[in-house]
Amino acid sequence: VIMTSPTTFQPVLERIAEEIERTPGRGRPADYIPALAACDPRSFGMAVAEPDGTVYGVGDWRQPFSAQSITKVFTLALDLAREGDALWEHVGREPSGNPFNSLVQLEYENGIPRNPFINAGALVVTDRLHTRTGDSSGELLAFLRAESGNQDLTFDEEVAASETAHGDRNAALGHFMAAYGNIDNPVPVLLDQYFRQCSITASCADLALATTVLARHGIRADGTRLLTRSQAKQINAIMLTCGTYDAAGDFAYRVGLPGKSGVGGGIIAVVPGRCTLCVWSPGLDERGNSVAGVAALDRFTTLTGLSVF
Ligand code: GLN
């Protein structure tokens, strides 16, 4: 059931932006990729999209930023739509309690990552999507363009090159899983796809719209079905339990929505059947989640009462 409501989200967004503006302490932009370190931590944008494509926004909501790990939600959706439950033989769906780029747990779990949203799991999903499509990052970009209606979305070659130059840890994850037979493509090919995927630049408006497939229980913007209702529910559940790494418990406690963060400072969130959100502010906490982003989502669910709980 798609609920539409005559209420506008604009006043609540403006109130949140004012509150965030007055709040000191924004965290620090990610510095492990030089191309991300240059972001202004004072930037803040937030958008809400409704299932019919109506978008509300405040602040820097139209400014493109590096989507990074937010893209992991969409590659998961695209791969799950193609191969269904067979995917779960190659990646688990339990929270890890470890940082996004952790190598621990892989060895005693025989090269099967704990979930699709830590880097190891996302590499497996990208590998499988690449095998099925021959161009996983191209497939992802086409999907994001179609769902957001923004044909200008593209890869940021500078960010992708910067990640490649600082990619030893992701390379280690890829080789480690390949040693267990859990990667099909040559690791350098996989890394190239993965870094291009992470480098996609999009705004809060674009990403909130792209996420509406999950608020519509699997139906794409053009009315066709990507995911079964059950698969859409499954992805929302994995976002809730694994979407903010080792802070997923705190995120569920404070925000109470399925969400997925990226080190570019963006976070997407879903109110199933009702709306999606995307918030962006590049300053991160020590677990790699946007400080102002989590605070803004916390205020949104408190002020509106919209939460899965
Ligand atoms: N590209 C980043 C990496 O793999 C993405 C991490 C993230 O957003 N958490 O290191």
Task: Characterise this structure.
Its EC number is 3.5.1.2. InterPro entries: Beta-lactam/transpept-like, Glutaminase. Keywords: Acetylation, Hydrolase. The protein has 309 residues and is α+β, with helices and mostly antiparallel strands. The protein has helices spanning 10-22, 34-37, 71-83, 119-133, 136-148, 157-165, 168-179, 187-198, 204-215, 229-242, 248-254, 291-304, and strands at 45-49, 55-59, 65-66, 201-202, 259-261, 266-271, 275-280. Strand 6 (266-271) and strand 7 (275-280) form a beta hairpin. Helix 3 packs across helix 5. The longest helix is centred in the middle third of the chain and has 15 residues, at 119-133. The chain is globular. The chain starts with 9 loop residues before the first helix and ends in a 5-residue tail after the last helix. The site of glutamine has 11 residues, from loops.
Sum this structure up briefly:
By secondary structure, this protein is an alpha+beta fold. It has helices at residues 10-22, 34-37, 71-83, 119-133, 136-148, 157-165, 168-179, 187-198, 204-215, 229-242, 248-254, 291-304, and strands at residues 45-49, 55-59, 65-66, 201-202, 259-261, 266-271, 275-280.
Under the CATH scheme, which architecture would be assigned?
Answer: 3-Layer(aba) Sandwich
What is the CA-atom radius of gyration, in angstroms? 18 Å
Shape: globular
Judged by helices, strands and strand pairing, the structural class is alpha+beta
Spell out the CATH superfamily.
Answer: DD-peptidase/beta-lactamase superfamily
CATH fold type? Beta-lactamase
What is the CATH class name? Alpha Beta
**Main pleated-sheet profile:** 5 strands, antiparallel
Number of domains: 1
Order of helices and strands: HHEEEHHHHHHEHHHEEEH
Distance between the termini: 18 Å
Mean pLDDT across all residues, rounded?
A: 94
Which small compounds were modeled alongside the protein?
Answer: glutamine
Strand content: 5-15%
* Number of contiguous helices: 12
Number of strands: 7
Placed side by side, the strands forming the largest sheet appear as 2-1-7-6-5
The stretches of 5 or more residues where confidence is low (pLDDT under 50) are none
Helix fraction by DSSP (H/I, runs of at least 4): 40-55%
